[in-house]
Write a structure and sequence with these properties.
Length: 335
């Protein structure tokens, strides 16, 4: 049995997890420096990097202990770590730590693309799922549709041409004074508002599978300024309706084009209640299985990195100790 430690430090979460090749999550620890960033309306790279330096060793130790492993000699088959995309100063902390652990435990190092990691969240809960899959990967930095033939075999078939969906949530929340990150408070508030209060355009209604969210954010701000009487809950509900409508419209278009056994969602925005409900409905109407991961596996975590690392390790894709971080590593460039 192979056992892999995963380390994730691409943004504000310092995370470590142990996963085995039965796709079982033996432990998953996530610490976040989010409280230090709230006042700034976004993640401050220098603060995130410093927090990772302080947290990485205790978080790794906690993950090993929770998995019942010896923290001095855990007997791991590999150490997997996110090496991009993300904040360079944050990525380097995790990568340096992973190299040190790999060297001292004499375990191979496996570098993992953060977005590929997100694609493993559904697999961790349904190891025997049927392929192929269409996955809507929606996070703070990325929005894409991915056609997956199997683990590690994926093709990006649609992508945002400007902002990511999560970025739009964060910007609208900031404008509404709801703080950072914006997804959870907008999601909550939307439940109390009228989704038809503001007539907002659904962008990108063409035949392609690409997305655009910068226009939607501007439309919300313009419409909100025209009608200052509008309740924040109505603004949130109207925005959420338009955002989810764009995402699901493209998912349906992709399902018309690709023959798949299931649809999945992944990334922080996959925690959104309206999107989760809509994707389940779409799957039912297309007669495919919906893979909607639990909330803790949608947002950044190291279990998904350990899982991706495990799959790469089993294909012999190990890295040298001279591996470098790439803050702009595209999913399409993952080998
Ligand atoms: O995947 P993630 O944790 O980090 C990145 O890799 O970017 O995604 C974070 C993003 C943020 O933009 C946050 O506002 C959004 O996910 N998010 C949500 C929800 N929970 C988190 N967006 C909409 N609804 C939510 N419930
Ligand atoms: Zn992420």
């Amino acid at each position: 049995m192979s056992v892999v430690l995963g380390i994730e430090t691409s943004c504000d979460e310092t995370a470590a997890a142990v996963v085995d090749d039965g796709w079982r999550v033996r432990s998953s620890i996530v610490e976040s420096s989010i409280d230090q960033h709230r006042d700034f309306g976004g993640v401050v790279p220098e603060l995130a990097g410093r927090a990772h330096v302080a947290m990485i060793a205790p978080v790794v130790r906690a993950a090993l202990e929770a998995a019942g492993l010896d923290v001095e000699r855990p007997g791991l088959d590999a150490v997997a770590v996110t090496s991009g995309p993300g904040l360079i100063g944050s990525l380097l902390v995790g990568l340096a730590a992973a190299k040190a652990y790999a060297l001292s435990w004499d375990a191979p190092l496996v570098t993992v693309n953060h977005l590929e990691g997100h694609l493993y969240a559904p697999l961790l809960e349904r190891p025997g799922l049927a392929w192929p899959l269409l996955t809507l990967l929606v996070s703070g930095g990325h929005t894409m549709l991915v056609y997956q033939r199997g683990p590690g075999d994926h093709e990006v078939v649609g992508e945002t041409i400007d902002d990511a969906a999560g970025e739009a949530y964060d910007k609208v929340a900031r404008w509404l004074g709801l703080g950072y990150p914006g997804g959870p408070p907008i999601d909550r508030l939307a439940g109390e508002g009228d989704p038809n209060a503001l007539a907002l355009p659904v962008s990108m209604t063409g035949d392609d599978l690409d997305f655009s969210f910068s226009g939607l954010k501007s439309a919300v701000v313009r419409a909100g300024e025209r009608r200052p009487d509008l309740a924040p809950a109505d603004v949130a509900a109207s925005f959420q309706r338009a955002a989810v409508e764009q995402l699901t419209r493209k998912l349906r278009r992709a399902l018309d084009r690709y023959e798949v056994a299931g649809v999945a969602i992944a990334g922080g925005v996959a925690a959104n209640s309206a999107l989760r409900a809509a994707v389940r409905e779409i799957a039912t109407s297309y007669g495919v299985v919906a893979h909607v991961p639990s909330l803790a596996l949608c947002t950044d975590n190291a279990a998904m990195i350990a899982a991706a690392g495990l799959a790469r390790f089993s294909r012999g894709l190990v890295s040298g100790l001279d591996a470098s971080a790439d803050p702009n590593w595209a999913l399409a460039d993952v080998l």
